[in-house]
Each structure stands twice: as structure tokens, then as C-alpha cells.
Amino acid sequence: MTHEDAGHYAAKHPPGTQPNPALAAAVLAKVENGLITCSDAHRIARDLGVSPAQVGATIDLLEKRIAKCQLGLFGYSPQRKILQPAETVAPDLAAALNRLAVDGRISCKDCWDTAAAFGMSRLATAAACERIGLKIRPCQLGAF
To answer: Please, what's the largest Cα pairwise distance for the chain?
Structure first.
């Protein structure tokens, strides 16, 4: 969903879906000005032993927005995204990313895993994807 869909994020889920109260409380404790950062959402998932998707669904059901994507894709004011293509991409990194890609797309989770495997930042891995023309989808939190 896009910024224009604000206030309708719960519509991504079946009618009548209610957030888990403990997850909702954890999310609301981190929300500032209607926003929760990607890193806070992932920290909640880790601390409560739930999947990032469950936290993302809770954020949707509470009609809150995710900010500051750790891959630089969205949530940065005023420019929205901070991701810029890498100047160069090492051949072994490009090969690893392309192996994980399906139809020109690579998941957020695969980007994170690749960043860890190559000892680089998540943002640098996303910048490599941008340079070699891979779209990053889906988001672990369900934002895209």
C-alpha cells in the first residue's frame, strides 16, 4: 500500500481481523506521530518471538505507518526513499543476488541474508540490487 492508502492499511487483511493485544501494545509503545520504524518493528518481532509479518499485520490493523526502511526504500522525509544505486557491484555479490532473484525480484529477507553473508550493510546490499536492476519485494513486514 502506498502513502495515499493511509488510513486503509487494515483493508489488506480479512474483515474482522483483530490485532494480538500484546503485539498491539508493543507496537503502540514505539509509535511516534503515527509512525514506527522498520528497525523497531523488527526488534518487537525478535523480542516477542513472532514473525516480522505478524508485527507488520498488527501495524496495518492499527492503521500506523512504517518509516525508515532498513533497505532505504521508503519512509524518509522529505524524499521518501534514500536508496541510490551502487557505483559498482562486485561480480560475486551480483551473482549471489541474481541467484536469489525470481522474475527480476528479490525478497527483503534475501537482501538481509546476503548483507550478513557478505559482511556489508543492508543499505549497501539494496544499492547493489538497484544497480543491477533487481526490485526488492516482498517486504518482511508486508509494507510492499
So the answer is: 48
79 in a domain, yes or no?
A: no
Where are any strands of DSSP class E within the chain? 35-37, 65-67, 105-106, 135-136
For residue range 109-131, what is the model confidence (pLDDT) as tens digits?
999 999 999 999 999 999 999 99
The tally of domains found in the chain comes to: 2
> Is residue 73 in a domain?
no
* 90-114 pLDDT tens trace: 999 999 999 999 999 999 999 999 9
Q: By C-alpha distance, which of 133, 120, 138, 5 is closest to 69?
A: 138
Distance CA(46)–CA(134), nearest Å, equals 28
Give the global pTM.
0.91
Q: Which domain holds residue 24?
A: 3-67
Q: What is the mean pLDDT of the chain?
A: 94
Within-domain flag for 83:
no
Q: Is residue 141 part of a domain?
A: no
Residue 78: helix, strand or coil by DSSP? coil
CB 140 within 8 A of CB 108: yes
